[in-house]
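Narrative of activities, Objective 1.

The group set out to show that a structural description can be obtained from nothing but a protein's sequence at a throughput compatible with the screening campaign. Below is one input-output pair from the validation batch, recorded exactly as produced.
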Amino acid sequence: MNQLNATHAWLRRNLFSDAFSGTTTLLLLAGAAWWLPGLIDWMLLQAVFKPDAAACQAVNHAGACWGVVAEKYRVILFGRYPHAEQWRPLLATVLLLAVIAGSGLRLLNRRSLAAAWILALPAFFILMGGGRFGLTPVGSDLWGGLPLTLLLATTAMLMALPLAILVALGRQSGLPLLRGLCQLYVELVRGVPLISVLFLASFLFPIILPQGFTIDVLLRVQAGIVLFAAAYLSETIRGGLQAVPGGQHDAATALGLSRWQAMRWIILPQALRAVIPSMMNSAVSIFKDTSLVTVVSLYELTGSLSLALAGDAEWRSYYLEGYLFIGLIYWTGCYSMSRFSRTLEAGTGLLRPPVPSTA
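Output recorded for this entry:
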């Protein structure tokens, strides 16, 4: 009885609190009742799950052809990476995801977590690139799929955050030249779309390099994404710094802390905590924006799907199922980051370093 009353109270509070809320709830339920049966029929009941092109053609799009995923998943997930060596990107992806999960679930303390990141990133590059420990060398032009997407997004956030903090502090500096340079950088980068930055890094930057000197295209593109993300993050962090009450600065001064000590131990942790949702929103955007690197011939998830289906007439018409599979991967990543953001907002202590003694 108590459970029934609690359920009734929840429904009334969340779905039928007033006439507008109740009408909206009923309309959504009616839409779901009309739309979901057909969707379930297409996705599950009439679908073909085995990698059989003839069976998919017999269904004639009346049901989903998930067989295209079963047939092409290796190319979708790993791109042009050599087939016999694909255990390496699989292991590298699992390793990187394990460290990311350990960070989000707080399975390790700060020191262990820092050590895990320091070890995981070089291990990722060794596994992917080879040339050491008896591994066959594989050029970065053959990297693709999920490992490339994770690498671009993860490295972008790890490198953009400290740069963004420095730029945000520079925007508040008392030195006019430093403040002007930081403002110029932010306004220039924010004034152009990411795709133009990628074209600049991929095609224009090599032209201005000295003859005979080259930088790997993956490094150039990664640098472009980092600079682009840092410009947006810096404004988010600057907003957090301005949101910290002036009394906090006065309290830090009264404790005898220098300007930089106050910023390190008092002001910056509060500013970062205040803008956690905005920073995580930037992380989600970066994760999704990695799909743009396809235009500069780096085949991440969406590019790998085109690679897998473009040259195969049997499976070419099943792009929708392939994009739904990729969409599920992106949704899983974005939802996981959203949950991690809520954990941080709840007060995990990750952004609350102990104030040093002034004695």
